[in-house]
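re: ur question from yesterday

yeah so i grabbed the chain u mentioned. its 89 aa long if i counted rite. heres the sequnce exactly as i have it in my notes:
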Amino acid sequence: MAEKKASGGARGGIAKPVTPSPELAAIVGAGPLPRSEIVSKMWEHIKKNNLQNPANKREILADDKLKPIFGGDKATMFEMNKHIAKHVK
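ran it thru and got these structure tokens back, copy pasting raw so excuse formatting
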């Protein structure tokens, strides 16, 4: 397990900066960001554009920017992190 340790000391996991895909960068910006900041910017976009399903607040209705990330018309807030993971390096 020691060989998988991230370089950069204690910064790893959610605090380690990652580079978003072009589709994700359309929402969060192109520069490297920690995953926590990407999730925050995604929520800013969702709330600003009123994309939560009013009948089920856990469901996010995808707009044109979110569809390529979600791979469909909607996703739950729990699935969102899985979709984000496919769009970062």
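noticed a couple things. Residues 2-9 have pLDDT under 50 and may be disordered. also The helical segments are 22-28, 35-48, 67-70, 77-85.
anyway ttyl
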